[in-house]
Amino acid sequence: MVSAKVYLKSSVIVLLLCLISCASKKPTTLESEKTIEQPKVIYNNKILIINYLLTKNAQDQKSISLINKINTEGNLKERPKKPLNTTIGDLQYALLDADLKEIETHTLKNPLKKTVEFVNDFGNFEKRILDLDSVQFSIRLQLPENAKHIVISEITNKKPIQLLSTKIE
């Protein structure tokens, strides 16, 4: 025969399991978390590829110059994803409309820091981070219908420093 103590404990466990299994799986949002829905961005059937040269001088000041830009028809398979961890020195680019209002913002890992993997003399893999003085990099994006400018900034511990603004034509 089951003692009253064991019966009481098992009844409480069963009751808790029933309550947990009946709990709602739908995520809840607080009223303060609700935001005004932003207007949806309408994309053209155009891909923009912009090539830049990023250089760093002896004082660690960065400058960017435009190499070329290519407009072509088509659609990208996927949109750029935001990196989970941005650090100081990474680049941020924003697409702006004709009124210089931000449409989209994306980030790039610092192109001047290249990670190289190689096999050492003992047959083991090694990884090194090279600190470059200049590098060419490209930005590929699906062009929103109303995008007129792209602004590239360097992420700092304070406010991002604008490096270059390019007009999209």
Account of the protein in words:
There is one protein chain. The protein is built from one helix and nine strands; from the N terminus they run αβββββββββ. It has one domain (39-167): Immunoglobulin-like. The longest helix is centred in the first third of the chain and has 18 residues, at 4-21. A hairpin with a 5-residue loop joins strand 1 (43-56) and strand 2 (62-73). The protein has 169 residues and is mainly beta. The protein has one helix at residues 4-21, and strands at residues 43-56, 62-73, 91-96, 102-108, 113-119, 125-131, 134-144, 149-154, 161-167. The relative contact order is 0.21. A four-stranded antiparallel beta sheet has the order 4-3-8-9, with no helix packed on it. The chain has a three-stranded antiparallel beta sheet with strand order 2-1-7, with no helix packed on it. The model is unreliable at 30-37 (pLDDT under 50). This is Lipoprotein. Residues 1-25 form the signal peptide.
Spatial strand sequence of the major β-sheet: 4-3-8-9
Structural class, by secondary structure, is mainly beta
How can the largest sheet be summarized?
A: 4 strands, antiparallel
**Rg from C-alpha positions?**
26 Å
Tell me the number of strands.
Answer: 9
The first-level CATH class is given as: Mainly Beta
The share of residues in extended strands comes to: over 45%
| Helix count, DSSP H or I runs of 4 or more residues | 1
Q: What is the H-and-E element order? A: HEEEEEEEEE
Q: Span from first to last CA? A: 85 Å
Mean pLDDT, all residues: 82
